[in-house]
Design goal:
This protein is mostly beta strands. It is 13% helix and 60% strand. It has one domain: Porin, CATH 2.40.160.20. It has an 8-stranded antiparallel beta barrel. Strands 6-7 form a two-stranded antiparallel sheet.
């Protein structure tokens, strides 16, 4: 081949390869969708928990929106649209008997929440937490081994504690304090002595959606 033609051909070939590579790179960038930010689907909740007369405390948690769909029904000639959500949730709480301080504990649980919201923002939800743990803390305790008496570090024990909650609430669209809730909680603490100990508690609190600060 003529050397005068060889150099232009090589330059043309190099330019073609470079252009093809650039186009392919642009297509890859276009087709790659970044996942939705975690906080766009997450709400934080803070509330009071207890049995009113004894064992009261504080609970904090978070909810992550997994699925959401809307259902429209016609009743008496009017259309009503309800939003149904499934959310992963996790909670952490601390309760104590402020008068005697003989019944103090901390708990954590994780599960799934189903929530229905109507067009007025009124909500009804059911929360099932099959993964639960409760740790009791006893007052100052000592153990005797032979002639020695030693103070026990963090006396108490842990329990498996699944729970079920049924509650109502209200949604506040576009607000940082995005909602409120009131729950009735049922927790099964096991093994407790020779069986299980069922407990009931009330919970009232607020949800916060920090992405609304940007709106």
């Amino acid at each position: 081949m003529n050397r005068k033609l060889l150099l232009p051909l090589l330059c043309l070939l190099q330019f073609t390869c470079y252009t093809y590579g650039q186009n392919k790179s642009k297509k890859q960038v276009k087709n790659t969708q970044l996942p939705e930010h975690f906080w766009d689907r997450t709400e934080v909740k803070v509330g009071l928990v207890g049995t009113v007369f004894w064992n009261n405390g504080l609970s904090v948690g978070a909810e992550y929106l997994w699925k959401e769909n809307k259902k429209t029904k016609t009743r008496r000639g009017k259309e009503r649209t309800n939003t149904h959500q499934f959310l992963f949730n996790g909670n952490l709480g601390f309760v104590t008997n402020f008068s005697s301080k003989t019944d103090t504990g901390a708990y954590t649980n994780y599960g799934l929440t189903w929530r229905r919201t109507n067009k007025k923002g009124k909500q009804f939800h059911i929360e099932l937490n099959p993964l639960g743990y409760y740790r009791s803390f006893l007052p100052e305790t000592y153990e005797v081994m032979g002639d020695e008496v030693d103070k026990v570090f963090l006396p108490g024990r842990g329990y498996y504690a699944p729970s079920l909650s049924v509650g109502i609430g209200r949604q506040r669209k576009g607000k940082v304090r995005s909602g409120s809730y009131f729950n009735i909680n049922y927790t099964m603490i096991t093994p407790y002595n020779s069986g299980a100990l069922p407990t009931f508690s009330f919970q009232y609190g607020f949800r916060f959606n920090f992405k609304n600060k940007k709106q």
